[in-house]
Amino acid sequence: MPAAIENLLDILDLEPLEHNLFRGRSPDEGWQRVFGGQVIGQALVAASRTVEPTRKAHSLHGYFLRPGDPAVPIIYDVDRIRDGKSFLTRRVVAIQHGQAIFSMAVSFQKEEDGLDHQTSAPDVPPPEELMSEEELKRQFMAHASEPMKRYWRRERPIELRPVSLTPYMRREKLEPVQKVWFRATGPLPDDVAIHKCVLAYASDMMLLDTSLYPHGRMLFDDDLQVASLDHSLWFHRPFRTDEWLLYAQESPSASGARGFNRGAIYTRAGVLVASVAQEGLIRVWPDRTQ
User: What percent of the chain has pLDDT over 70?
Assistant: First the structure.
């Protein structure tokens, strides 16, 4: 198993402290703040630990309240709001330094049959026909900024294969859409909850970038302050996160120092397995130079 996947699974394996109370840690990767997807994934793990395996997470809605400190553990406090016959609701608060840094509601449901329809997946090349992440790094590193180089040098548990390389190769105002294939870089356990937690982790990657495309900007521009404000995720159908999934993203609006983004996640067979929505802070500091 690749070290990055082993480390991710270790990070998602929270330490139980007390009834409804768990402790998580962050990887030692030199980040100034905790990656939002990590907090979403760990909070979903904490909530899942308080329900029976027959109940599956079908939606979550979270708010980022303060930047996470990667140097100290994160405490996850789970409130068992409701246990119904079909649905269960949990509220999770992530705490550091005595303050809430993240709050999330999660709904679980027992499996049921019902009406079934979905939108069609975009027509894009399969991942095998696209540039691998290692090939992208070799081309991209030569003219990347130092912060971006540090980001790409790290071994990561999620492999990305963008359908379009234009945003990586040159500054250009683009349509606010992007499509990216992704998967875990190694096999995951045959546990539905783990696959959902890893997908929750990955769902925060690259989504906010889409808001920057119409402005010819990049996440690491010196005069930008960019951060996730909230995150919603709906699970529709079964999937495996260690198999290729297509993340189709769009940004319908940016205004008021905020960018709004939506995403749809499909399997290779075109099955819609999850939907995502997120709003993020995009603040321009006019007194800073790029």
Answer: 93
The one catalytic residue in 96, 204, 211, 230 is 204
Name the class of domain 3-110+127-284.
Answer: mainly beta
Helix, coil or strand: residue 12: helix
Q: Three-state DSSP class for 214?
A: helix
d(CA 14, CA 197): 12
Q: H or E element: which one contains 158?
A: strand 158-162
77: helix, strand or coil:
strand
Report the pLDDT value the prediction gives residue 144, as an integer from 0 to 100: 66
Taking the C-alpha atoms of residue 252 and residue 15, their distance in angstroms, rounded to an integer, is 40
Question: What letter represents residue 31's amino acid?
Answer: W
pLDDT of amino acid 139: 73
Residue 278 designated active-site: yes
Which one of the listed residues 96, 103, 203, 228 is annotated catalytic?
228
pLDDT score recorded for residue 206: 87
Q: How confident is the model at residue 151 (pLDDT cuts 50, 70, 90)?
A: low
Q: What is the mean pLDDT of residues 174-182?
A: 96
107, pLDDT greater than 80: yes
Q: What is the reported pTM?
A: 0.92
Nearest to 195 by CA among 228, 160, 237, 230: 237
Q: Of the listed 178, 211, 232, 278, which one is catalytic?
A: 278
List, edge to edge, every strand of the sheet that includes 99-110: 15-18, 21-24, 74-83, 87-96, 99-110, 55-64, 224-235, 272-284, 258-267, 245-255, 177-184, 158-162
Kindly tell me if the per-residue pLDDT of 125 is higher than 70.
yes
